[in-house]
Write a structure and sequence with these properties.
Layout (H helix, E strand, L loop, with lengths): L3 H10 L5 H8 L3 H13 L3 E7 L2 E6 L14 H17 L7
Antiparallel strand pairs: 1-2
């Protein structure tokens, strides 16, 4: 790819960035940045150093990728658990019989 050197230089001089941040910094399309990132990762020249709001943050060098954080429970799942607990509290000892 033609953008790999630019991306690697940016990660070295500026520091860790997401694909979106790299795209804005270098004024390149996100798709081209992503393709270059995949290529650089396969060459073990960059790695995922962190996760921010479900987005990978890349840094120059080679190390183990940061673990992806567990997904946050969906709002409906949380609300459903809340309603179930509320119902069981109201029913008291009878909650287990239904």
């Amino acid at each position: 790819m033609k953008y790999e050197a630019e991306i690697q230089d940016s990660l070295i001089t500026i520091g860790p960035m997401t694909v979106h941040e790299l795209s804005l910094q270098l004024r390149l399309p996100s798709q081209d940045v992503h393709k270059a990132i995949v290529s650089l990762k396969s060459l073990k020249q960059i790695y995922v150093c962190a996760w921010e709001d479900g987005t990978q943050v890349y840094a120059a060098g080679y190390a183990r990728d940061a673990k992806k954080p567990p997904p946050k429970p969906a709002i409906n799942q949380t609300f459903s658990a809340y309603l179930t607990a509320k119902t069981h509290r109201k029913m008291g000892v009878w909650a287990g019989l239904m």
